[in-house]
């Protein structure tokens, strides 16, 4: 059988080795040097004549070639001290007919200068890494303060004042409010004003992480804890937040088994990583949030009562937007400023009829819905003024809005006087009204979630199959 290397003339072999690697040494199974190239000899101050046939330990300082020739285990990027400098060495066993017959090794950097030259080449990669490390660090800071919480209505101010007052304490805070009311913003602001502000603010959404990953996400895992686990293990959010604040969003969606584990950590103030045994102390302030009625969940056995009491030390109710409509113009102004910088626009204003219409709407998706409505309007806007025509259909159609407000939000008092007396009140058959209400609710949910159907189904608290069926029925894409 012809072997590929046979075609390469013998006289080339040494040249090839010298060209591909500057410093090469080859030993037999006893560690006797069979070959050492000139580059290596020059580096360690010897000659080929002196080195060949001697044991590698007698020629090369701190060599491990004889060990590799015995164990058969390669050693990559191993640090070896030669002539007072740290070198990077690679060592490979040579195997013939399943027998270890020797080893080949090379040294990569002759001196620190060489290493620096190499380093300068990878400096851009190192810079990039540093940039992302700083970014992660920034992401672990609170991004909002109380100044970002816009609103002067009495119910909103009461919530904001309470949050400000408790921010410096270490007690747990439970933020209750409908979706999009600003719970996460409150959590940021509380951390920002606390004594923990120099440490991390770590946010985790308990509903968006699959149940089987939640435990390792929160408490971390040890090396080899499960298939696919990162080598060396991983810190959990509790450890990352140590000294700072951990924001547990959508706590009402946490599975019962996890609730017990969370309670244990809150009581013991220490975590044990998945697959580990060591207890790691953690000093974390908890802010939890939910749009669910936790008391009712406790009654139904869906939420642990002891955990509820532990989280509910300070409860802050964040009012829905429809209960503080007077705040809408100021909030819309702030949101427009935010959107302007995102869309590289400026000077955008709401026309007075749009402001009026926004004040009439019942905002089931709260400030997030308002933000999405404004974003949509900017997208279809050529000039500077947002007019009624730039609003989504469901907001333009004021008659339907007035008619359905009571159906969609029967907790809200809809006064008949809010429907213009110039427009006759049209009464449709109940079935048709319900169909329209359902269609509108789906459309609104899609606006609030920016077209995300799974999120919309969740908001409406219906299954995804039923949601898709209804979209098909109403021809909603
Ligand atoms: N008081 C406020 N002033 C200005 N903007 C606000 C205010 N409250 C919330 N927002 C904005 O509204 C959006 C939704 O807020 P946030 O995510 O904090 O709500 P949430 O209650 O946590 O929602 P969810 O329950 O769906 O997670 C964000 O873009 C936020 O910046």
From TrEMBL:
PROSITE patterns: PAS (PS50112), SIGMA54_INTERACT_1 (PS00675), SIGMA54_INTERACT_2 (PS00676), SIGMA54_INTERACT_3 (PS00688), SIGMA54_INTERACT_4 (PS50045). Keywords: ATP-binding, DNA-binding, Nucleotide-binding, Transcription, Transcription regulation. InterPro entries: AAA+_ATPase, AAA_lid_NorR, Homeodomain-like_sf, HTH_Fis, P-loop_NTPase, PAS, PAS-like_dom_sf, PAS_fold. Gene3D superfamilies: 1.10.8.60, Homeodomain-like, P-loop containing nucleotide triphosphate hydrolases, PAS domain. Pfam families: AAA_lid_14, HTH_8, PAS, Sigma54_activat. GO terms for molecular function: ATP binding; sequence-specific DNA binding. One of its GO terms (biological process) is regulation of DNA-templated transcription. Residues 14-80 form the PAS domain. Residues 149-379 form the Sigma-54 factor interaction domain. This is Sigma 54-interacting transcriptional regulator. It comes from Neobacillus rhizophilus.
């Amino acid at each position: 059988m012809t072997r590929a290397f046979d075609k390469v003339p013998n006289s080339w072999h040494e040249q090839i080795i010298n060209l591909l690697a500057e410093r090469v040494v080859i030993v037999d199974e006893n560690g006797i040097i069979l070959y050492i190239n000139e580059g290596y000899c020059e580096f360690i101050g010897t000659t080929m004549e002196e080195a060949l046939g001697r044991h590698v330990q007698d020629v090369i300082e701190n060599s491990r070639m004889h060990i590799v020739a015995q164990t058969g285990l390669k050693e990559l990027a191993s640090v070896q001290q030669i002539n007072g400098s740290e070198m990077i060495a690679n060592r490979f066993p040579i195997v013939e007919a399943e027998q270890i017959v020797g080893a080949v090794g090379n040294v990569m950097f002759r001196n620190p200068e060489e290493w620096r030259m190499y380093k300068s080449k990878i400096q851009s990669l190192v810079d990039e890494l540093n940039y992302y490390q700083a970014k992660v660090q920034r992401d672990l800071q609170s991004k909002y303060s109380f100044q970002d919480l816009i609103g002067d209505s009495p119910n909103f101010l009461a919530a904001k004042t309470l949050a400000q007052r408790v921010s410096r304490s270490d007690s747990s805070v439970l933020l209750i409010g409908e979706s999009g009311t600003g719970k996460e913003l409150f959590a940021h602001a509380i951390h920002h004003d606390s004594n923990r502000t120099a440490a991390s603010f770590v946010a985790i959404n308990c509903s968006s992480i699959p149940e089987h990953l939640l435990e390792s996400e929160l408490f971390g895992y040890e090396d080899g804890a499960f298939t696919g686990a990162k080598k060396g293990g991983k810190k959990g959010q509790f450890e990352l937040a140590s000294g700072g604040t951990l924001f547990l969003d959508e706590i009402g969606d946490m599975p019962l088994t996890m609730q017990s584990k969370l309670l244990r950590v809150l009581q013991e103030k220490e975590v044990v990583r998945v697959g580990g045994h060591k207890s790691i102390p953690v000093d974390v302030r908890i802010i939890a949030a939910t749009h669910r009625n936790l008391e009712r969940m406790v009654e139904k056995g869906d939420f642990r009562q002891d955990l509820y009491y532990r989280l509910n030390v300070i409860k802050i109710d964040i009012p829905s937007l429809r209960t503080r409509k007077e705040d809408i113009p100021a909030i819309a102004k702030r949101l427009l400023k935010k959107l302007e910088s995102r869309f590289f626009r400026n000077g955008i204003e709401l026309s007075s009829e749009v402001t009026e219409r926004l004040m009439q709407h019942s905002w089931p998706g709260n400030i997030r819905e308002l933000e999405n409505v404004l974003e949509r309007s900017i997208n279809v806007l050529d000039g500077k003024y947002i007019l009624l025509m730039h609003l989504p259909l469901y907001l333009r159609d004021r008659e339907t809005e007035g008619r359905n407000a009571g159906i969609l939000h029967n907790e809200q008092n809809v006064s008949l006087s809010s429907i213009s007396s110039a427009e006759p009140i049209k009464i449709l058959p109940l079935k048709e009204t319900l169909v329209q209400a359902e269609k509108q609710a789906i459309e609104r949910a899609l606006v609030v979630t920016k077209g995300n159907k799974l999120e919309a189904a969740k908001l409406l608290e219906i299954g995804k199959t039923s949601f898709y069926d209804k979209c098909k029925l109403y021809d909603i894409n």
